[in-house]
Design brief:
The structure is a single chain. The chain is of the alpha/beta class. It is 40% helix and 18% strand. It has one domain: Alpha-Beta Barrel (TIM Barrel), CATH 3.20.20.10. It is built from 10 helices and 8 strands. The longest helix is centred in the last third of the chain and has 21 residues. The two termini are 24 Å apart. Bound molecules: pyridoxal-5'-phosphate. The site of pyridoxal-5'-phosphate has 14 residues, from strand 8 and helix 10.
Amino acid sequence: MDSVQNIINLKKQVPDSVKIVVVSKTQPVEEILKVYSTGHTLFGENRVQELLLKKERLPSDIEWHFIGHLQTNKVKSILPHVTMIHSADSFRLISVINREAEKLNLIVNCLIQFHIAREETKSGFSIDEAGAMLQSPDFMKIKNIVFCGVMGMATLTDDMYLVRSEFRTLKEYFTILKEKYFSRNHQFREISMGMSGDYMIALEEGSTMIRVGTLIFGERKSKVK
Ligand SMILES: *Cc1c(COP(=O)(O)O)cnc(C)c1O
């Protein structure tokens, strides 16, 4: 199976209302162009340098989402080039995004990343941490970010009961945040969850955005988290 057939098949399975972020990390521009040639224009990358290089070489109507851990010193260079950051995982990062966006006169779409997996290596807020941030006076000063929803990664496991319960938890967090803090923000509506191995469960649990790489391109040669 090739990437063209894979994206076409996936689109048949996924409701139109769900956004598909094709994760192109480690893939060369030629591979990305094949998927683009089907009319798909939404791609995700998890490294700043890689995204910038690819963006330069690929059609300008591609929409790029940043999905990986973002270092504060790289915020400035990435902001003008992405339409969404899925991985706002600390208030420190959010503050820097806001500050740099203000300097560049940009409004940046961000998702609040939650830690829902068992692995400690995955980053993100707990629900208590997020609540504390959202109630803090400093948060009220954030003017150059639009919060568009939540993102999370499930544990890498064959235990699909665990994965399902983690997605369900993320959906609950979304609902709590929406009610308590974002009821008047109509852009707060995305739940970014589900990757190649678990996107069907994520869809059943209410995902609005899936992030899939391997499913489209096959196994990556080098292992990148
Ligand atoms: C790599 C990556 C994906 C895609 O993973 P696949 O298993 O290849 O679909 C999704 N989300 C994030 C944050 C990633 O780093």
